[in-house]
Design brief:
With 317 residues, this protein is an alpha/beta fold. It folds into two domains: 141 residues, Medium-chain alcohol dehydrogenases, catalytic domain (Quinone Oxidoreductase, Chain A, domain 1, Alpha-Beta Complex); 140 residues, Medium-chain alcohol dehydrogenases, catalytic domain (Quinone Oxidoreductase, Chain A, domain 1). Helices cover 28% and strands 28% of the residues. The protein is built from eleven helices and 16 strands. The strands form three sheets. Strands 3, 5, 6, 7, 8, 15 and 16 form a seven-stranded mixed sheet that branches. It has a six-stranded parallel sheet with strand order 11-10-9-12-13-14, with helices on both faces. Strand 13, helix 8 and strand 14 form a beta-alpha-beta unit. The relative contact order is 0.14.
């Protein structure tokens, strides 16, 4: 089968054997997949050894591994996977989610990673409540747009940053309350103005270490700070311990790298319970910026790297 592999940040097309599902796994005939920044950005603790590219997909079940129950060949599913940019990919059956009938494969492919990460930040750890203020740096990214949509669905008011005023104008149609045109810092004063000097209740940091200090200053009393991305490539920052202490702040990270499989499954089930019905009835909808064909994956990568998109860049099979 045709399969794209990631080697040192470069995508390579290979002809490899179709994988066979092991115990507890599903083999999926991939119909669509998405780019994700975390997979492509260099990270000092992540190996650069070649591996199948693509960490989420949507498709149809082609085969069931031993011990899998509750699924049938031909069912439409989506989920985190290994080898999403391949004709076939493996999904742990515990990570699989049935695709709501109203969604296309291209739309469904944009859900698993971005929206499950958003659920982890906004609900599980962030405990975002109606009427609170949410600030999302890099709001036009896949995770950023997911946080904006979900935050509004939860009844929050949302501040978002982006280097593009055009993108911010687009996101106003999704409910963005305050847009701040910046690729880095500079959001503290707008955030304080919007919140009457109190600061935001939850801040999602997609940018990284260069805005960490300002993010701490922008938090309200008992504010929560989620670290999820490093668009700036900066993995370290100074921490104002006095602010953490006096404001009773809660700082947390969202990553699956070190999580046991059982913990990841809890995230999937919580997302399935809380948010999958919102996709089924249309209250939440993945924002797909552009769809490329599988044989256009090089052009899709170039477009993704240009940062021109709002939402997800999808590859369709």
């Amino acid at each position: 089968m045709k399969s794209y592999w990631l080697a040192g940040g470069t995508l390579e097309l290979r002809d490899v054997a179709r994988p066979e599902p092991g115990p507890g796994q599903l083999l999926v005939a991939v119909r669509a997949s998405c780019f994700n920044r975390g997979e492509l950005l260099p990270h000092p603790t992540i190996s650069t050894a070649a591996k199948p590219a693509g960490v989420e997909c949507a498709g149809e079940i082609a085969a069931l591994g031993a011990g899998v129950a509750g699924f049938a060949i031909g069912e439409r599913i989506m989920g985190r996977c290994s080898g999403g940019f391949s004709e076939h990919a493996l999904i742990d059956a515990r990570d699989a989610l049935r695709i709501p009938q109203r969604l296309t494969f291209e739309a469904a492919a944009g859900i698993p990673l971005a929206f499950m990460v958003a659920h982890d930040m906004l609900v599980t750890h962030g405990k975002l409540a109606a009427g609170e203020w949410l600030l999302v740096t890099g709001v036009s990214s896949g995770v950023g747009v997911a946080c904006l949509q979900a935050g509004k669905a939860l009844g929050a008011q949302v501040i978002g940053t982006s280097g593009s005023t055009t993108k911010l104008a687009q996101l106003e149609r999704l409910g963005l309350d305050v847009g701040v045109a910046t690729r880095g810092g500079g959001f503290l004063e707008p955030a304080l103005r919007a919140t009457g000097g109190k600061g935001v209740n939850l801040l999602v940091n997609n940018v990284g270490g260069t805005v960490f200090a300002e993010s701490i200053k922008a938090l309200a009393y008992e504010g929560r700070h989620a670290t999820v991305g490093y668009l700036d490539g900066t993995f370290k920052a100074e921490l104002d311990l006095e602010a953490v202490h006096t404001k009773r702040l809660h700082l947390f990270g969202v990553s699956n790298k070190l999580r046991p499989a059982a913990d990841r499954v809890q995230t999937v089930r919580a997302f399935e319970r809380d948010w999958l019905p919102l996709f089924a009835d249309g209250r939440l909808k993945p924002i797909v910026d552009r769809v490329f064909a599988f044989d256009e994956l090089g052009a899709a990568r170039a477009y993704f790297d240009s940062n021109a998109m709002v939402g997800k860049v999808v590859v369709s099979f």
